[in-house]
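Session log. Operator J.P. requested a structure for one protein chain; no other inputs attached. Running the standard single-chain path with token output.
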Amino acid sequence: MMVKVVGIMGSPRVGGNTDRMVRWVLDAAQEAGAQVACIVLKDRRIGHCFGCDVCHQPPHRCFNQDDMEAVQPVLEDAHAFVLGTPVYWWGPSGHMKSFVDRWYGFQGDRHGTLRGKRFGLVLPMADSDPSTGRHVVGMFSDALDYLGCKLHEAVLAPGCGAPGDVEGKPEVQAQCVALGRWLCQAPTSPRR
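Structure written below.
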């Protein structure tokens, strides 16, 4: 069975540090034999969660008629994910936060949508203090734990505020490559 690894690129800056880190992970996964894809959130129309609970009632569809409907089958079919977001004011980008908030629909009757899948996180930040990313790492760790997943690793890239800064950090690239290889290991079956 070919492993499917999906990158979720949460930066509005294509070609920037987040994009580069996600690509390093996906390239390593592909070289290890995985089928890879990348969802660039800035190119998707994904509305905010309003907490209305419509997604928890049959037919379990959000009242937002947006691109999340097309993204959901990709999430269900994949074995592993790399989530990428810059740190914006000690949190994820707005694109990523809206995307993650829509996971609210993956509880209740649909609680198993992401259960058992592998996750990694890449997190560039302008601040040189890596602890600046702690809230983002904690948010993803807690959310994934709640959904029956584990965040395997968060690759932090402090001091990477300007586009291309991450290119000067070979240790970050090495961590991304290792994460990509790990995401390819013996997956659980995707939910059908």
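Operator note: The mean pLDDT is 92.
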